[in-house]
Design brief:
The complex is a heterodimer of chains A (about 425) and B (about 600). Chain A has about 425 residues and is α/β, with parallel strands linked by helices. Chain A is about 45% helix and about 10% strand. Chain A is built from 18 helices and twelve strands. In chain A, strands 1, 2, 3, 6, 11 and 12 form a six-stranded mixed β-sheet that branches. In chain A, β4 and β5 form a beta hairpin. Chain A is globular. Chain B has about 600 residues and is an all-alpha fold. The longest helix of chain B has about 30 residues. Chain B is globular, with a radius of gyration of 27 Å. Classes of the chains: A alpha/beta (about 425), B mainly alpha (about 600). At the A-B interface, α1, β2, α3, α11 and α12 of A face α2, α3, α14, α17 and α19 of B.
Chain lengths: ~425, ~600
C-alpha cells in the first residue's frame, strides 16, 4: 500500500490507544455521588465504634456514608484533596488549630451555632474564627487519668493511690528500688509524652502558663514554669527500674501495648493516658484476657487542684453538599451518639447528654467534665508552626529526645533539661498565630 | 526503474535526504512499475506516530509535573531562601545521608553479595535458587516490613531476633534491659537494610549465575593453569562477562531502593522515624505553615541528582559482549564430597532465608492477644483470619487485582508499540530516547505528586481507580519501553525484512514476527508490572482516596498500633502476598531472560 495507508493505520492505532486508556476502567469509575465521605483519624476499636454509630444514621435517613480512616496522614491527605478540589464531605479532626487554619483558607463551611449550643463555650472558642463557628465537637477525652490495678497496689502495701505528684514520684522510686517496676509508658507514641507534659504544666500554676502557651505568646516558652515541668517529668521518668522492661524498650512501646503490659500481662501496675484506654480494657475483657480489673485515679496535683486536660475531635464540614449538613446536624443531637456512650471510653462534649447514660466509671469522668469550669484543651493540638506535631517533629519529638536523654544510664539530668528547654524556645520562635 | 539522479546542488540533496527520511526511503522492490515506498522501511514520520500514546501518557504523568515543578521552584518569590532554609535543616541533611546510603551503598552491597552467593552456590541446581530469588522479591514491601518488624520486635517473646540477642548477651552477663534494641536508635537503619537485602540478594545471585554459566569453563582452566588465583579468574575471565549484569543490577536496585518509602513507614517505630527517614518521606512531612517552597526546593535538587546519577550509571551498560542466553544449565564438574557439603549448606541457607516468611505465617495463625502479650507460641487459633474476614481489608483485594491487570495490559500494549517504533522504525528523537526513558523512569513520585494532582484535575476523577491507573501506567512505561525496545531489536533483521515484504502493514510485522520472538520479554514486563502495581503503597497513598484503596494502603492503615495489631496484620500480609508471589513464580524464567537480554544496548 502507500505511505498514506501506513500512516492512517498508525493514526487509528494511536487514537484507539488513547480512547482505551481513557475509557477502560469502568469498575470503580462510577462514583456514587450520594455517599457521604468522612475522613477520620481513628483506628481499631474507636473506628469500629464510630462505624456502628453511623449505621444508625444510615438506618434513619437511608443515606450511605463512607468512612475513610486516614491515620496520621490526615494533614497530607487533606492537602492533596484540597489541591485537587475534591475535599471529603466531613473530616473529623482532633486539632482545633488545624480547623481554624482551614477555616481561614475558606475550606470549611460555617456552622449553624444552634447545633453547638450544648457544648461548653471554652471548647467552641477553639474552633471559632472571627466570631464564626467552624467545627462541631463530637468527642471529648478526659486526659488526666491514671489507670491502675487496685490489687497490685494493695499487695505493695499502698492503701490508696497517690494524690500529689511528689507522693507519686516517691512511691514509684521506692517500689522500683525494691525491684517492682510499677509504671508503663507508651513512649514510642510521641503524643503520650506531650500529654504527660501538659498535665504537669497545667498542674504547676493552675493553667496560667498553659493558657499563655496556647495563645501563642512565643516568649512564654522561656518561662521557668516550663523548665520546672521538665524537672518534674525527669523526677519520674528517670527513676532507674521504674519501667518493667527498661527505658530503651519503653521508647519502642506504643500506647496500646503499654496498656496491655498493665492489664493483660499484669507486668506493671499503672499507666497514664486518657479515658480512651477504657475501650482497650473492654476489648481485653470481652476476649477474657483481662488479668485484673482496672481502676482510675485523677492525675495527681502539683500545686493546688489537680489538672484537667481534655482532648477531643471536631467534625468540620468541608463541602457544601446536602449530605454533609445532614450528617453534621445528626451528630449534634444528644441521642445520636448514645450507642457509643454505652461502650466504655466515650465522652460526649454535649452537656445535655444525661449523666445517667454513662456507665460505671465513665459517669465519674463525665461528672468531672461537667463540673470543670473551663477544661484546658490539649495544648499540643493547638500549637502551630514548628512545634506542631507532624510525624517525628515538633513538641512530641523534643519530648521524645528528652525522655531518651534523661533515661540513659549516667545521664546528667540538669543538662538534659536545659537542652530540651532550649529546643522548645527555639522551635517556638516560628509559632504562627 | 533506477533511482532519480542526485542533483548537483548539495543543499537540495540535503533537503531530499530529509524528505526521504520523513517519507521513507525509496527502494526498488522489483523491476516493474513505480518504485514503492515503505515496503522496506517506513518513514520516520510514521514511526513517530507510533510513539504518540506513550509520549502523551509519560508526558502527562512525568514530564509535565517535573517541568512545572522546576518552573515554580525557580520563579516563586524568594526561591533562593527556600533552598537555603531547606539545606540548613539538620533533619533534611540526615534524610539526604540516609537516601544516599539507600541509593548508593545498599545496591552495591546487595550486588556484591549476590555475586558471592552466586559463586558459593555454583553447584546447586538453578531450580532451587529460583524460588529464593522470586518469592522475596515479589512480596509487597509492606509485608516485608511487617515480617521484619515482627522479627526484630523488642519483646523477646514476639521477636526471635531480639530473643537471640538477649540470650547471647546473657552469656556475657548483660541483663536484657541493657541490650540495645534492634529497632532502636542505633540499629534501625541497618535493620531496614537487612530487610531490603533479604528481598533482593537472591535475584542478584540468579542473574550472576546466569551470566557465570555462560562463561566457557576452559577459560578459567587456562588462567589457573598459568598460576592465577581466584582473583585473576575474577578479574580476567569473569568480570568482562559480568560487567553488564553488575551495572544492570546496581541501577535496578537503586531504583528499587528509592522506594523504601514503604519500608521506613512500616518498620521504624514512631520514636525513631526521624532517624530512618528518607527524602521520600521528608517531602511529605513538611508542616503546613512552612512554605511548600522548601519541599519544592528539595524536590528539584533530588530530581537533578537522581537524573544525573542514572544517566551516569547507564553508561556502564554499553558494550558488546554477547547477551547471556536464558538459564542454560552448566555441566557439573566440581568434586563430589565438596559438592555434597555445599548442597547441605545451601539447604540450611534456604531454611534461614525462609524464616521471616514462616514467622509471619505462624504469627497469623496465633491468637492475636497472645501475640501482643507474648504468649503466642503454641497458642494456635484462626482468630486473626476471622477478624480479617470481618474487616474492610478484604474489600481491597478485588479492586487491587483489577487495577493490576488493567495497568499491566495497558503498559505492555502501549510500550510494545513504542518499543517497536524505537527498534525498527527510526522515529524522530530516537537518539535521545534512552536518556529520556531512563530519567523519566527514576523520577521520585513524591516530588511531582502535587503538580501531578493539578494536571489531572480536568479529569475530575480524583481518588478513583482511573487516576491511580493513569499514574501507574505513566510510571511503568519508561522501563517497559526500554526493556522491550532492546528485546525487539534483538530479533533478526532478516526475519523482519521478510515479514515486511509479505505483510500488508508494519503492525502485522509487529504482531506476527516480533511479538512471538520476544515473548519472554513481554511476559517479564507484564509480570513485573503486575507485581509492582499490586505491591504499591506510594501511589495509593498519594492518589488514592475513598473510591479506591489498594491493599498495601489497607495493610498500612492497620499497622498503626503494631504489636497489638500484629496478629491480624500478619494474616492480612499472608493473604496479600499470594497473588504477586504466584505471578513471580509462574513467570520466573521469563523475568530473568527479559531482564538480562532486554537491557542490552544495541
Amino acid at each position: 500500500m502507500t505511505a498514506q495507508g501506513v500512516s492512517r493505520r498508525s493514526l487509528i492505532k494511536a487514537a484507539a490507544g488513547l480512547v482505551t486508556v481513557a475509557a477502560a476502567p469502568t469498575a470503580g469509575c462510577a462514583s456514587d455521588d450520594d455517599a457521604i465521605e468522612v475522613f477520620v483519624l481513628w483506628s481499631g476499636g474507636e473506628l469500629d465504634a464510630f462505624r456502628k454509630t453511623l449505621e444508625g444514621f444510615a438506618a434513619e435517613t437511608g443515606r450511605r456514608v463512607r468512612i475513610v480512616p486516614v491515620g496520621e496522614q490526615m494533614r497530607e491527605l487533606l492537602r492533596a484533596r484540597f489541591n485537587a478540589n475534591n475535599p471529603p464531605d466531613i473530616a473529623v479532626i482532633p486539632l482545633p488549630g488545624l480547623v481554624r487554619e482551614y477555616a481561614r483558607d475558606r475550606r470549611v463551611v460555617e456552622l449553624d451555632p444552634a447545633w453547638a449550643a450544648a457544648i461548653p463555650p471554652s471548647l467552641n472558642d477553639t474552633v471559632t474564627v472571627d466570631g464564626r463557628l467552624y467545627g462541631l465537637w463530637v468527642k471529648a477525652a478526659h486526659k488526666s487519668l491514671f489507670w491502675y490495678r487496685h490489687g497490685a497496689l494493695r499487695e505493695a502495701g499502698i492503701p490508696a493511690p497517690p494524690q500529689t505528684w511528689s507522693a507519686l514520684a516517691e512511691m514509684l522510686a521506692r517500689e522500683a528500688k525494691a525491684g517492682r517496676p510499677m509504671l508503663s509508658i507508651g513512649a514510642a507514641d510521641g503524643w503520650v509524652l506531650t500529654d504527660w507534659f501538659e498535665n504537669v504544666l497545667a498542674g504547676m500554676d493552675q493553667g496560667a502558663t498553659y493558657k499563655r502557651l496556647a495563645e501563642g505568646t512565643a516568649d512564654a516558652w522561656a518561662s521557668e514554669v516550663v523548665s520546672g515541668t521538665l524537672e518534674r517529668l525527669a523526677e519520674v521518668w528517670a527513676i532507674p527500674g521504674v519501667f518493667p522492661y527498661g527505658a530503651q524498650r519503653a521508647l519502642l512501646t506504643q500506647w496500646e501495648e503499654s496498656v496491655f503490659e498493665v492489664f493483660a500481662e499484669c507486668r506493671s501496675t499503672m499507666v497514664f493516658e486518657g479515658d480512651f484506654v477504657g475501650a482497650v480494657i473492654t476489648r481485653l475483657d470481652t476476649a477474657g484476657r483481662l488479668c485484673e480489673q482496672a481502676d482510675v485515679f485523677r492525675f495527681p496535683a502539683i500545686a493546688g487542684a489537680p489538672p484537667l486536660v481534655v482532648g477531643g475531635d471536631v467534625a468540620a464540614r468541608l463541602s457544601e453538599s446536602q449530605g454533609s449538613a445532614e450528617l453534621l446536624q445528626w451528630l449534634s443531637k444528644p441521642e445520636s451518639l448514645s450507642g457509643w456512650v454505652a461502650q466504655a471510653g466515650f465522652l460526649s462534649p454535649n452537656l445535655t447528654v444525661p449523666l445517667s447514660t454513662y456507665l460505671g466509671r465513665d459517669r465519674l469522668l463525665a461528672q468531672q467534665f461537667h463540673d470543670a469550669e473551663a477544661p484546658l484543651f490539649d495544648l499540643s493540638d493547638q500549637l502551630g508552626g514548628r512545634l506542631s506535631a507532624g510525624q517525628g517533629r515538633g513538641l512530641p519529638r523534643i519530648l521524645t529526645e528528652f525522655f531518651r536523654e534523661v533515661t540513659e544510664p549516667g545521664a546528667r539530668r540538669a543538662s538534659a533539661i536545659s537542652t530540651a528547654h532550649a529546643r522548645l524556645r527555639e522551635a517556638a520562635r516560628g509559632v504562627a498565630e | 526503474m533506477t533511482d532519480p539522479p542526485l542533483t548537483r546542488d548539495p543543499r537540495l540533496s540535503t533537503i531530499r535526504l530529509a524528505l526521504d527520511r520523513l517519507n521513507g526511503e525509496v527502494r526498488p522492490l522489483d523491476d516493474h512499475g513505480q518504485p514503492r515506498r515503505n515496503r522496506l522501511r517506513p518513514g520516520a514520520g510514521a514511526g513517530t506516530l507510533w510513539l504518540v500514546p506513550a509520549i502523551i501518557i509519560v508526558g502527562i504523568v512525568v514530564v509535565l509535573p517535573v517541568a512545572t515543578l522546576i518552573w515554580e521552584s525557580v520563579t516563586s518569590g524568594e526561591s533562593w531562601r527556600h533552598y537555603f532554609n531547606a539545606f540548613t535543616d539538620p533533619q533534611l541533611l540526615r534524610d539526604v545521608r540516609n537516601t544516599a546510603i539507600w541509593a548508593v551503598a545498599v545496591p552495591l552491597l546487595v550486588t556484591v553479595a549476590g555475586y558471592g552467593f552466586a559463586v558459593l552456590t555454583r553447584d546447586v541446581g538453578m531450580r532451587f535458587i529460583l524460588p529464593m530469588a522470586f518469592v522475596p522479591m515479589a512480596l509487597p514491601m509492606v509485608v516485608i516490613g511487617v515480617a521484619f518488624r515482627t522479627l526484630y520486635a523488642p519483646q523477646p517473646s514476639l521477636g526471635p531476633a531480639t530473643a537471640m540477642a538477649q540470650a547471647l548477651a546473657g552469656w556475657f552477663g548483660v541483663p536484657p534491659e541493657r541490650v540495645t534494641p534492634l529497632l532502636g536508635e542505633r540499629f534501625v537503619t541497618p535493620a531496614l537494610i537487612s530487610a531490603f537485602f533479604w528481598a533482593w540478594v537472591w535475584l542478584a545471585a540468579v542473574m550472576f549465575r546466569a551470566a557465570l554459566d555462560q562463561i566457557p569453563p576452559d577459560l578459567e582452566g587456562v588462567v589457573r593453569g598459568e598460576g592465577g588465583g581466584y582473583w585473576h579468574v575474577l578479574r580476567d575471565v569473569q568480570w568482562p562477562f559480568l560487567r553488564r549484569t553488575f551495572a544492570i543490577l546496581v541501577i535496578l536496585l537503586a531504583v528499587m531502593a528509592s522506594r523504601t518509602f514503604d519500608l521506613v513507614l512500616i518498620m521504624a517505630p514512631g520514636s525513631v522515624q526521624h532517624i530512618a527517614e528518607v527524602l521520600g518521606l521528608y517531602v511529605l512531612r513538611q508542616p503546613n505553615v512552612s512554605a511548600p517552597g522548601e519541599a519544592t526546593a528539595v524536590g528539584v535538587v533530588w530530581l537533578a541528582v537522581v537524573g544525573v546519577g542514572v544517566l551516569l550509571g547507564a553508561r556502564g551498560v554499553r558494550y558488546d559482549w554477547p547477551a547471556p542466553a536464558v538459564l542454560a544449565e552448566r555441566p557439573r564438574t566440581a568434586s563430589t564430597s565438596g559438592r555434597l557439603l555445599r548442597r547441605l549448606a545451601f539447604f540450611a541457607v534456604i531454611a534461614v532465608w525462609a524464616f521471616p516468611a514462616i514467622l509471619l505465617i505462624l504469627v497469623s495463625f496465633s491468637d492475636p492477644i497472645g501475640v501482643a502479650t507474648g504468649g503466642w507460641v503454641g497458642d494456635w487459633s484462626r482468630a486473626a483470619y476471622v477478624s480479617l474476614a470481618q474487616s474492610a481489608m478484604l474489600d481491597t483485594l478485588l479492586p487491587t487485582l483489577a487495577l493490576a491487570i488493567l495497568v499491566s495490559a495497558s503498559v505492555v500494549a502501549v510500550a510494545s508499540v513504542a518499543a517497536y517504533s524505537l527498534a525498527w522504525l527510526q522515529p524522530y528523537g530516537s537518539a535521545a530516547a534512552t536518556g529520556v526513558l531512563l530519567v523519566t523512569a527514576v523520577v521520585p513520585i513524591q516530588v511531582t505528586a502535587g503538580t501531578l494532582h493539578d494536571a489531572l484535575v480536568p479529569l475530575d476523577q480524583q481518588g478513583t481507580m482511573l487516576t491511580a491507573a493513569i499514574v501507574h501506567i505513566g510510571r511503568g512505561l519508561p522501563l517497559a519501553i526500554l526493556v522491550l525496545r532492546n528485546a525487539f531489536g534483538a530479533v533478526s533483521p532478516d526475519q523482519v525484512a521478510f515479514e515486511r515484504l509479505n505483510s500488508r502493514s508494519e503492525f502485522m510485522v509487529l504482531v506476527r514476527r516480533v511479538v512471538p520472538a520476544a515473548r519472554p520479554a513481554l511476559i517479564a514486563v507484564v509480570a513485573l508490572e503486575f507485581i509492582l502495581v499490586w505491591n504499591d503503597l506510594v501511589v495509593g497513598f498519594l492518589f488514592g482516596g475513598s473510591e479506591f484503596t489498594p491493599i498495601a494502603m489497607a495493610l498500612f492503615g492497620h499497622s498503626r498500633q503494631f504489636t497489638t495489631g500484629a496478629g491480624m496484620l500478619a494474616a492480612g500480609s499472608v493473604v496479600a502476598s499470594i497473588p504477586p508471589v504466584l505471578v513471580a513464580i509462574l513467570a520466573r524464567k521469563a523475568i530473568v531472560a527479559g531482564l538480562i537480554s532486554g537491557v542490552v544496548k544495541r
